[in-house]
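Incident log, structure service

09:12 report received: a user says their structure output differs between two submissions of the same chain.
09:20 pulled the input from the user's history:
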Amino acid sequence: MRRFKDRLALWLGALCAVLAMIPLISILYEVVKNGASTINVDFFTAAPGVIGQPGGGIGPAIQGTLILVGLTIIIGVPLGVLSGIYLSEFGDNPVGRIIRFLNDVLAEFPSVVIGVVIFTLIVLTLRSFSVIAGAFALSIIMLPIVTRSTEESLKLVPNSIRDASMALGRNKTMENDIERSAYNSQEWRRYRNIASDC
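09:34 re-ran on a clean worker, output below:
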């Protein structure tokens, strides 16, 4: 009886999965059928067309996305990496504990709240929408992730590498040996894979 219930649950689950896939496959088929003929070089480089008329492209959207991501990286990554280095190497003090606590709190913030705060502080102050406001919002969202990844990667570097580097008289131990070991760690490899998938 138990084996029958197990198989019945398995087949019911598979049937529900197939039924849920039917509308998705139908939508995908319609999108590919109606949109495949419009994909060309002009589609990726041209400006959007007039609503209701054929033609147009997504060139400005791609350009805006690249500018937004570039500005976000310029703002968020250096601050996050420096914060992670500080927390890993010098963060065992009250200031480090406060920064770590605030970083954990910031990681739990909903992105909608961050967007509303940036909208209030930047967009309403400047009285216009700008790519800077979006870059600040995304960099605030990205900051705790980069900080935590940097801190955890540096903590994975064994003390033997630090001691060996200091014994050899390397006065730039952090830049030369510890960062190189941390960059090749599993935590940073996972972070780079996520970034390359985006």
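09:41 both user submissions now match this output. Likely a transient worker issue. Closing.
09:42 reviewer note: The chain has a mean pLDDT of 83. Residues 140 and 149 are 15 Å apart (CA to CA).
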